[in-house]
Amino acid sequence: ITAGRYAKAGEFPWHVSIQSNGKHICGGTMISALWILTAAHCFAEEVPPDLTVVVGGIDLNLPLEEHKPDSLILHENFDRMSMQHDIALILLSSPIEFSNEKIPICLPFIYDINTWQHCWVAGWGTRSAAVAVPASRVLQKVRMKLISREQCLERIPQLVENVLCAELEKGERGICQVDSGGPLVCSYWNTMKWFQVGVVSWG
To answer: Which of 79, 114, 181, 202 has the greatest number of CB atoms lying within 10 Å of its CB?
Structure first.
């Protein structure tokens, strides 16, 4: 996140940090006790031997619960050039025990973008567009607004199919590369139930 706000403890309890050699490489989402949803472009074809999934906290400086992956499933039609079907699943080797800091996200059952409200992305990405500024070790958040495919095509004519577009809410600042794989979450009808409507891919 560039110039985002710090998330509060337990505010995004489904958010995980996917790490290699102890360094955050991508975000992900807990969708059950054993499955993590993330972006395919975060990986080569196989799981790196040093990969871990860190759950249950917002501050990566603190000792947090770590899980080893059992296997990685990339979308069979993922295209690294066009970034189409940029989605992947990680199967963990041991289940996550749920708590106030570890809760799976709901998956959506509504596909009309006008239904969704109060959308957010969060991540441990770069805090400044300047390369020299290191990634934040504390989870940051920024409010987003879904936009129609037509609006998106006006800005990105080469947009592929099966992509959802979102822009910053007024007054917010943008997301950065190392937030890849994290969730775009929204609620609806002023309920405070949260659903994952997208995976951060590029932008």
So the answer is: 181
How distant is the alpha carbon of residue 30 from its chain centre? Answer: 10
Please list, residue by residue across 136-146, b when 16 or more beta carbons sit within 10 angstroms of its beta carbon and e when fewer do. Answer: beebbbbbbbb
Distance (Å) of CA 189 to CA 116, 117, 185, 186, 194: 8, 7, 14, 10, 11
Tokens 């009808």 correspond to: 189
- Amino acid residing at 141: K
Which candidate, 168, 166, 177, places its Cα nearest to that of 133? 177
Residues ≥6 apart with Cβ < 8 Å to 23: none
**Which listed CATH number (3.10.150.10, 3.40.640.10, 2.60.40.1930, 2.40.10.10) goes with 15-92?**
2.40.10.10
Q: Catalytic residue numbers? A: 41, 86, 180
What one-letter code names the amino acid at 190? N
Q: Are 183 and 37 in contact (CB under 8 A)?
A: yes
Task: Give residue-wise pLDDT tens across range 178-202.
Answer: 478 889 898 887 777 899 988 888 7
Distance of CA 21 to CAs 49, 52, 101, 102, 154, Å?
A: 9, 8, 24, 23, 40
